[in-house]
Specification:
The chain has 403 residues and is of the alpha/beta class. It is built from 9 helices and 16 strands. The protein has 2 domains: 201 residues, 3-Layer(aba) Sandwich (Rossmann fold), CATH 3.40.50.150; 115 residues, NAD(P)-binding Rossmann-like Domain (Rossmann fold, 3-Layer(aba) Sandwich), CATH 3.40.50.720.
């Protein structure tokens, strides 16, 4: 029997009141690495998830996370930019950032740039010069008119890159992968020599989606840190930033923050522009939601196992749509290989490969015409209209069910 892990001090606020509230064992450690065949996908590296909640700041983290199990390289692909819905969201974000901060012929640094889509959009929109850092970056994936103004690197961003003084320093969907978030943010703070020049933009998954909306499938191993409005604001404030804006976006699936380096790093969260102390009134409700999470989500998983068993008994053919984090969480938590045998994804670089842990093959939407499903499980309902339109174009009308 596995021993209950101890809970250290909160990595964000240093509080000692955190408690474990949800655990999963034997989960794939990387959701963005796909495999050439089902056997290798099922033999992927795994780890345990033991989530702790800090009632003092609202931060949630996996106390069993082991960074040595994680290795990012060019095989990693979790790009959402093939979706028109996500492209539209990203373009509106780019336009707002360029307009708000006057990003024309300026310098943009993107920490964790992925395959490079967002940085390319920023450089195109404002005629900016860009520097992108990500071990998963692959050349030639992004066709951009700004190519001659962008420098790409497969390195992790570190203090040695402080010479690249940016007008915008962006980082999307990276901070949740950092086991010591404040150390990372303080490193960035030290690299900024002109607080008036550099604006910080971070984007992370919103804890609201998991805890309040009950999306347990978004609990994955590589996301070792889970931020609420309160904890994200607190982290920036204690690390020496003045918070300019915090917003829940994409139907409260994402959380964004904009900040500047404070001229005086007091370490006092109440002294900063963002005033995280003003958000603490929400912590009581968040604590109540966390307390109920384990029971409600275990019941949800049980209900889904019953539903899958019924589909098998009825001979219903089912596929999942979306080969990202939610699909990996959904299929591995339910332990399903036999009911949902295929996963659809519009990213052509994923098609033909196999999902981590359970090994389902990833197929294109067009492949559904060869063996039409009775049921499509939507991994993310925000894409429902987009998916419905694609199915209609293929002449298919399966039942659509939100995961």
């Amino acid at each position: 029997m596995t021993a209950t892990p101890s809970v250290p001090a909160c990595p964000v606020c240093g509080g000692n009141h955190a408690r474990l509230f949800f655990s999963l064992s034997d989960q794939p450690v990387l959701i963005g690495v796909l495999w050439p065949d089902a056997d290798s996908a099922r033999a992927c590296r795994r780890g345990d998830i033991d989530l702790a909640f800090c009632p003092d700041c609202g931060f949630i983290w996996n106390v069993s996370f082991d960074p040595d199990r994680i290795e990012y390289d060019q095989q990693y692909d979790n790009s959402l930019h093939f979706s028109p819905t996500f492209q539209n969201y990203s373009q509106k974000l780019v336009d707002r950032l360029v307009d708000t901060y006057g990003l024309h012929q300026r310098t943009v640094v993107d920490i964790g740039c992925g395959k490079g889509d967002f940085l390319a959009m920023l450089c195109e929109a404002g005629g900016n010069t860009g520097y992108g850092f990500d071990p998963s970056y692959e050349g030639e994936r992004v066709n951009t008119s700004a190519a001659d103004r962008i420098t790409w690197s497969n390195d992790y961003y570190g203090e040695e890159h402080a010479r690249l003084q940016a007008d915008l320093l962006a980082s999307r969907f990276v901070y949740e992968h950092i086991p010591a978030p404040n150390d990372f943010l303080r490193m960035i703070r030290r690299s900024i020599t002109d607080p008036d020049r550099t604006v910080i933009y971070f984007e992370v998954p919103d804890t609201d989606l998991i805890i309040r909306q009950g999306s347990v499938w978004d609990v994955i191993y590589e996301h070792c840190s889970y931020f609420s409005v309160e904890s994200l604001t607190r982290s920036f404030a204690v690390c020496g930033f003045d918070v300019l804006r915090v917003e829940e976006t994409f139907e409260k699936q994402f959380l964004t923050i904009e900040a500047r380096a404070a001229r005086t790093d007091t370490g006092n969260p109440g002294s900063n522009t963002g005033n995280p102390g003003s958000n603490t009134g929400n912590l009581g409700q968040l604590a109540a939601d966390v307390a109920a999470f384990g029971e409600t989500q275990n019941a949800k998983m049980s209900d889904w196992r019953d539903r899958l068993a019924q589909w098998r008994a009825e001979g219903r053919r089912a596929v999942a749509w979306g080969a990202g984090a939610k699909a990996v969480g959904f299929l591995n938590m339910l332990g399903d290989r036999d009911t949902i045998t295929r996963v659809v994804d519009i990213n052509p670089h994923k098609q033909g490969k196999h999902l981590a842990g359970t090994g389902q093959q990833i197929i294109s939407p067009q492949a559904l015409t060869e063996d039409p499903p009775d049921v499509v499980v939507l991994m993310n309902p925000i894409y429902r209209n987009e998916i419905t339109a694609q199915l209609a174009e293929l002449g298919l009308a399966p039942e659509l069910i939100n995961s």
